[in-house]
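Lab manual, section 2.4: Encoding a predicted structure.

Procedure: take the sequence of the chain (238 residues), apply the prediction step described in section 2.3, and record the output as structure tokens. A sample record is shown.
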Amino acid sequence: MEILGLVPARAGSERVKNKNIRLLGNQPLIAYTISCALKSKLLTKVVVSTDSVEIAEIAKDFGAEVPFLRPAEISTSYSTELEFHHHALSALEKQCNFIPDLIVNLYPTCPFRKSSSIDRAIALLLENHEFDSLRSVTPCTEHPYKMWIKENKEIKPFVQSSDYEKHTLSYQMLPKVYIQNACIYISRYQTIMEKGSTLGDKILGFEMDQKEALDINNELDFKLASSLLVDMTSEMYF
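Recorded output:
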């Protein structure tokens, strides 16, 4: 079975400049994801999809393959997962004669992801044939029943309910909800190429803890990650 580790890393980060190659500790951010993927026992190929020559060279220095560059038109902030998945699969088939059974999407903004988690997620999807894809999730710290939208001066519940008192209940009395993180998304090849989706019809959940699933999107996240990196290194987390 061929299982592709696909690391998407476009150059045009808007909230944090050059985020994917910015140093965290003594390494570029993307290096943590590449290292994690290369240590996986189940991934058979690790490829970085990028539109940047600089990112491509850094990725290759840390052991990833970069057999193509992503076109600019699918490397914008509005480009979709499906677009860069389609491009990567088409390019790999044409240039490398490589067609994976599973595509494991690994965003480089999650530096604390463990290779063992990648392998457990892959094994979980392989054991559950009826699912089209897998998404990693973490429990929500902010519950949707506590969220509101504002219309002029009035606020209204984000989650519509006939009983407003539901929005006053304690968290323990509300249904447990999860939010997808950016750690591990797995799609079957047929889901992408035949159903035209990275999700498909039936999605398997893979729960992770918040520390491992930390996603770096802004300066505060970088500061938190830098602090956690010191603790995790001392704990031999990696």
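Check your result against the sample. The longest helix spans residues 81-96.
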